[in-house]
Design a protein that fits this description.
By secondary structure, the chain is mostly beta strands. The protein has a four-stranded antiparallel β-sheet with strand order 1-2-3-4, with helices on one face. A hairpin with a 6-residue loop joins β1 and β2.
Length: 92
């Protein structure tokens, strides 16, 4: 798949202002392929103290499962944590 441009649609953060913040985002991934494919999905990513994103080749270190639960809970409470762009074969 071609490299994607990522458009952040929603975001919640964990951390103090002007420090490193762990973010949970709902994004649109716009691929530069010939079909101009777009997919939506979630990601965790770190924001630096200056507000810029820390790219980490698709991976973000998450300190604890409670951090995951806190951020996903915030997303649900804000009304955007329910999006489902496919289950990758898993049924719940």
């Amino acid at each position: 798949m071609a490299q994607a441009r990522v458009v952040v649609l929603n975001e919640v953060k964990l951390g103090k202002p002007e420090e490193w913040n762990l973010c949970f985002q709902y994004c649109r991934y716009e691929y530069g392929d010939e079909d101009h494919t777009e997919e939506n999905g979630y990601r965790f990513i770190w924001r630096k103290p200056d507000g810029s994103l820390q790219g980490a080749r698709g991976q973000a270190r998450i300190p604890s499962i409670s951090d995951i639960q806190y951020l996903t809970g915030k997303a649900l409470a804000e009304g955007w944590g329910h999006h489902n762009n496919g289950n990758l074969g898993f049924q719940y």
